[in-house]
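Archive maintenance. Older records in this collection stored only the sequence; we are now back-filling the structure field for every entry so that each record is complete. The fields below show one back-filled record exactly as it appears after the update. Entries are processed alphabetically, and Glycosyl transferase group 1 is next in the queue.

ARCHIVE ENTRY
Title: Glycosyl transferase group 1
Organism field: Herpetosiphon aurantiacus
Length field: 451
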Amino acid sequence: MQRVAFCTPVNPVESGISDYSEELLPYLGQYVDLTLVVDAEVQPTNQQLLAKLPIIRIGDLAKQHARQPFDAIIYHMGNSPAHSRFWQSLQSLPGIVVLHDYVLHHLMLWHAANRLKNVASYRQLMQHYYAEQGSSIAQRMERGQLGDAVFDFPLSEPVIAQASSLIAHSQYVLERVQPQRPNLATSLVPMGVPLLPAPDRLAARQALQLPAEIPIWASFGHINPYKRIEQALQAFAQFRRTYPDARYILVGSVSPSYDLKALLQRLQLGESVQVTGYVDHADFNRYVAAADLCFNGRYPSAGETSASLLRLLGAGRAVLVSDIATFSELPADVVAHVPVDRDEVALIAAYAQRLWADVALREAMETNARRYVTEKHSLPLAARGYADHLSRVQGWPRLEPQREPLWDINAVTIQHSIAQTIGRKAAQLGLVDDDAPLLDRLAARLRNLLT
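Back-filled structure field:
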């Protein structure tokens, strides 16, 4: 079997790409012999992964490749500091890039500020790719004047330039890559997510001590202005005029730069809105099961494909999404698309009224959602897409599965050490060696902006 180096964050790195990779690896391992390549400070916590795969540090990849060349190297690139050393390696040792986010601005700023300790290199990139306008934006960023403009300056160009070939999970990303490198080999590979057993709404509500009969809205993930939460809450306030017992549950952490409490007070929503903060995996799934209607908004977009959205659809939930970027590619009978315009609030409220009143319509939408993920976004289908890309770009015969999945993702054991837990929390607070206060503050603010 061909040997493939797979460079990615894994748990305990708190990134959706960590979960994505750990779920994909056992299926991709049916086709090739994988070596997992992790960041220098990361000690994987997935016990099955530790038992089944050889693991090396990214700093050792070049030496290992020189001594015994890999047949292919895959780099996962996303818009977070977790990919900084992978970007550093890609510059000297090109490979296949899996571009999870089209906007990599946060990664590039953090890399310049913290890895290189040279913010001037960030300015130079902005000047090189976007001329005077880029230089002006860079100066504003350094002064902490962050805004939506960063979404128009993706800084993914240098990563695309280094790719030997590229995998994306959406046409949206591929359409933006193609003009930059028309001859680059690319593939559209579906994002794979595990399909859990059909959820039991009543049992979930009992476990969470939620009323059985009331309408429940829910949104999942980090809460910030770009998730359109304010517009959803305004629509929810209208919905409550007809259904005063309705509840909206916000499941996830709240950005420090977002005054959610003031917003709830202004809308006079009181205890009808529940903010859970971070919840563990089991409770996350219970909240998904308990919900009647989910809202997944975004504007502007970093061009990401949302694994959390696919998990909601796989659970058979009725979901409203912003009609933007990758979300627009979802079929109209699977999600309800909400244009980001002056009618946004009214349309969210109207969709909610119709879906709650028309049980047959809501159930049909739930059935379509689960079928869509089953047929289009399974983990075996994702692994097949990777295998086909590898065969094509490397000139190999078509890869076929040679064995069963390397492990059962439903039986994963996670082991956390005290040191890992403390280190992870310290990293969340921005406590790093050789702290550069101004640059870290800039990077932290941008992280809140883009996550």
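Update note: The mean pLDDT is 91. Residues 201-376 form a domain with the Rossmann fold fold (CATH 3.40.50.2000).
Entry marked complete.
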